[in-house]
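Here's a chain:
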Amino acid sequence: MERLSRVDVRYILGSRVFQLLTVVGLVFVFWALSRSRSSFDFQLDPTTADLLTFPLNVFELVICLVTFLYAGWLLQRSRSTGFHELLASNPIHDRTIWGSYLLTLVKVQALLLVVLMIGGISFQLLNGYVQLEIGLWLWRLIVLELPEMMMWAMVALGVHSRLSRPYLGML
């Protein structure tokens, strides 16, 4: 299951759409943070608690979009390449394939949360705020947000398993 997942993660990370969505999401988060800091007559410090509220909610939309998009692509990739008959006749159990799809999506989600954490810490350092609170970043993103993202990955796989088109599940 791990080997199958590794191949699929490489497929997703090499995709230009994934790279574009990640960069656009980070740019939007940085833009929103810079606008929110200067909206008052005084400058606000970019504390970790502040960075984990609105920017996290914005980037969660990007993560959900990536999850639903690539769940459809992973499930429909074998059919679009004509490989689905060979995949159905292999000795690997269906649970293993589905588990690798879920593991792939969770790995991508965890990677996107780490990218958000690195981007947020970079924003703090660029603005001269050195009280980083790495433990709070890890607690909020990995312990609190990742299980929620895992549920979205299961929902995305469930939705796309019932549909025959990979983009139809985005609606």
